[in-house]
Amino acid sequence: MESDKDNTFNSFYTEVKEIEKRDSVLTPKQQIERLLRPGATYRNLNPFDVLQVEPDTSLEEIKKKYRRLSILVHPDKNQDDPDRAQQAFEAVNKAWKSLENEETRKKCMDIIEEAEGRTDLMLAEKRKKAKKDGKDKIPEDDPEQRKHAVYVLTMKLFADLERKRRDLAERDQEERKRKREQEIDEEEKAKAQKEWQKNFEESRQNRVNSWQNFQAQGKSKTKKLKSFKPPKNKPESR
């Protein structure tokens, strides 16, 4: 028996596929709604899903689809709702950049292939269990049902990858923040040390000057004492 979560997702998946079938007649507003409805944050992690193309679609065809979509949702074409149109346009643009770049496209394909492989393993186990229960088939023997299973796992894998990316980015940010705080602390210590050294040098020079002045005054007094001659005694007259 399927859980409520599975039923909700099945309903969503069916809706997505119906929208894809109507893709050629989707209006700009409908495309914006598709790209921004609840849950889009994770659904839009899959660039193939955003551009509504199959993973084995040629790059040239993907580019054509990207251009059509970007025109449909462009803010200039949707001035009655420019903010949401801008968000949708950014999602389409990000998806195209992911697939246009050879390295990121390969990463996306790796996720698709992993989802395919893991789904096949899961279905093989499911067939074994069904056979023990006396059943000849499982629902996923239907190509559309299998495709649905791959779609579900693909979304989960993209979501897992995004969570890992965010965790790494957060740790990297924390590390850079820690290093910067350490640098600021060291700079402040160096500044304080420099200020202390400057004050020490100035006070030492003042002490030296005071001592030199004191010595100079002492020598001056000594000279004055040496130059002093007492008066001669005059003989008394009788």
UniProtKB/TrEMBL annotation:
InterPro entries: DnaJ_domain, DNAJC8, J_dom_sf. CDD domains: DnaJ. Gene3D superfamilies: DnaJ domain. Residues 46-113 form the J domain. Residues 206-218 have a biased composition (Polar residues). Residues 220-232 have a biased composition (Basic residues). Residues 122-149, 163-238 are annotated as: Disordered. GO terms for cellular component: nucleus. Coiled coil: none annotated. Residues 133-147, 163-205 have a biased composition (Basic and acidic residues). This is DnaJ homolog subfamily C member 8. The gene is LOC115882019.
